Amino acid sequence: MNLRCIRLLYVIAALYDAALGLLFLVAPSFPFATFNITPPNHMGYVQFPAALLLIFGLMFATIAKAPRENRQLIIYGVLLKLSYSGLTFWYWMTTDVPSFWKPFAVIDFVMLVLFVWTYAALAPKSAEH
């Protein structure tokens, strides 16, 4: 994967997470009402993770600007995507989860794989003797 593709991946990740974060921060009830999902008893439970998604969106934008220099940040993106996709797949397979959340788990899993790939691709090349 070349540097241009890596940058594009992290721009897409930044826009994706920031858009979701913004939606759930400013209109937390909208997705629940639109998709007929029982909301939590307090919207703060939705808005706090939404704010975290905005922060991660900024982090992905930082990675996109200088992937090699910010390689160490990629592991946090891997952990974010593992957390969401792992938990969602777990509940999907054990107790079910509303269909609304499933596409995000699939997208996050694909991003997780791509992030691991880019982390490896950006590893410093060792000098051969």
TrEMBL record:
Highest taxon above the source species? Bacteria
Q: Which UniProt keywords apply?
A: Membrane, Transmembrane, Transmembrane helix
Q: Which sequence ranges are marked TM in the entry? A: 7-30, 42-61, 73-92, 104-122
Stated name of the protein: Uncharacterized protein
